[in-house]
Amino acid sequence: MKYDFDAPVNRRNTNSLKWDVAENELPMWVADMDFQTAPEVREAIIKRAEHGVFGYAVIPDEWYEAYTDWWGKRHSFLMEKEWLIFSTGVVPIISSVVRKLTTPAEKVVIQTPVYNIFFNSILNNGRQVLESPLVYDGKEYHVDFKALEERLADKQTSLMILCNPHNPIGKIWDKETLAKIGELCYKHSVTVISDEIHCDITEPGKSYVPFASVSEICRENSITCIAPTKTFNLAGLQTAAAVVPNEALRHKVWRGLNTDEVAEPNAFAAEAAVAAFSNGEPWLEELKKYLSCNKKYVRDFIERELPQIKVVPSEATYLLWLDCQSVCEDAERLTSHIRKQTGLYLSEGGQFGGNGRSFIRLNAACPMSVLKDGMNRFKKGVESFAC
Which domain holds residue 312? Predict the structure, then answer.
């Protein structure tokens, strides 16, 4: 391999949210990777830093071209420059849209278990969370369309946040599923925010379907959130985009982002995104293979050493959703015990809603040596737990 993903990177004492933990602890919780970003991206950032002046920045044409070229080539979705609006992050887009397109006490539909920050974006803005739980058949998750339509038909429902691909279950929604979601939302006058931040981290040979590419209905009734941040481990640079094909809707989103002051780039945001999308593809292809091996290692380890735990099949993201029902129905107690006994820091599933209370989310985006350490700790913690 051209790129070395085996080399450990010491992230302690770097003001890292993930690694600001005790010396004996191993964090495998929050969704960022323990790999350096692509060399091509680092070079672009260094070049910009060497200039030495960090004044107010604007979005160059190259930024728009990088996004449209990437989505056209990799995802067969032809975006127009005018559809794109810069933002500092996907969560700021979601929170801003919640404020702009809904009124206090209205309801926002989410399909749980789902990314826990969706709850914050809704509740912190005085709106109501309306969960439409995904159906778990003991192995995989599916959309309960009857339950979903009931929630969309609620007169107080005005917005739905879709996770595509889905975090934490790692599912890539197929075209038919997305089309049906789009039709139901249009039927009941519910606008869709599609969070597609994990879209480029798929299993080798797998591809995702952009929600807005599915049909005219999906395109005209949606706001898509995209970014290079999960793909290239750039979250700290605060760089993302909203894609809004509908002109009237786009104006509202633009107004919301600018009113909230989350539509201006820092000195590195545009350069990093352009470098990632323009030159980072070879690095990404090797990363995907490495992550696939890591996820397979976790599956094989658990099947061999902890057969009472099930790993939900994952087509995308570097996260794994572990069914721990046979060990304990309260994952918060289990993860707390594992951390106390072994130092392994995992995400308890209750915060993701739905049936997540008996699940654990594990981040496998780290060097294999670190992953092996984590799995040995996990085994020790589970085996010493008494429900």
Answer: 26-37+281-383
**Each residue's pLDDT tens digit in the chain (387 positions)?**
899 999 999 999 999 999 999 999 999 999 999 999 999 999 999 999 999 999 999 999 999 999 999 999 999 999 999 999 999 999 999 999 999 999 999 999 999 999 999 999 999 999 999 999 999 999 999 999 999 999 999 999 999 999 999 999 999 999 999 999 999 999 999 999 999 999 999 999 999 999 999 999 999 999 999 999 999 999 999 999 999 999 999 999 999 999 999 999 999 999 999 999 999 999 999 999 999 999 999 999 999 999 999 999 999 999 999 999 999 999 999 999 999 999 999 999 999 999 999 999 999 999 999 999 999 999 999 999 976
CATH of the domain at 226: 3.40.640.10
Sign, Cα dihedral of 51, 57, 60, 65:
positive
Q: Do 302 and 262 belong together in one domain?
A: no
Q: Looking at the structure, do residues 77 and 175 belong to the same domain, yes or no?
A: yes
Q: Which are the contacts of 97, defined by CB distance < 8 A and separation ≥ 6?
A: 159, 193, 223, 242, 253, 256
Q: Are residues 252 and 290 in the same domain?
A: no
Tell whether 269 and 287 lie within a shared domain: no
Give residue 74's identity as a one-letter amino acid code. R
